[in-house]
Amino acid sequence: MHAKKLLAFIIATLTAAPALAVKEHDNKVYFDGPALQAVSFQQAASNGYSITRNQPFSGVSASIEKGQIMLNVRAGRKKSGEVSSWFKSVIGGGQTLACDSSGTYPKELNFAVRGDLNFTMNNRKITCKDMVIGQGSFGENNNWWVSSPSMTGIHISISGATALSCSAEGAYLPVVVAFTPKTPCVSHFNIAPLN
Prior knowledge:
The chain has helices at 2-21, 81-91; strands at residues 25-32, 36-43, 49-51, 57-65, 68-75, 96-98, 111-121, 124-135, 144-147, 152-156, 159-168, 175-181, 188-193. It is of the alpha+beta class. Strands 1, 2, 3, 4, 5, 6, 7, 8, 9, 10, 11, 12 and 13 form a 13-stranded mixed β-sheet that branches. The longest helix has 20 residues, at 2-21. The model is unreliable at 13-20 (pLDDT under 50).
């Protein structure tokens, strides 16, 4: 009788183990810029995210935290090549920018989201459309990747600078917004309109 109980306990523990490994996290990435006043992230209604199979995903929230844009992706953390393939297919020929990486494109990502980043800086309401933001890993840290199909610039391993043509409320001409990694990077970027 004791052996049957022990066997039942072992089977229950082994079948529950995969469920215990799946956990949703607060995954925060920051964008620092002058005089930030408001922010929102409107996730794309269609094809708006990719996450490793069987991992949880609750969406993206945005706020101003300590004078910085903070995006929080509520999701699991398990890297896969499937997510990085999605990331590459969505950005097409757009330039990438990463916090701590050894390549131009991610080999594996935990998740990636796509949508419009709306922020107010120095009383200007700016919208950067079709941003793609993903989390992978580099060494012991979870690193972040930023891109868009129309992003231009240069990414050299742990540094670089990219630019994206965005729109400003009431303006006829686009606003060029620069993105650069903040040192030390891990999960922090600088953001600044150039015109």
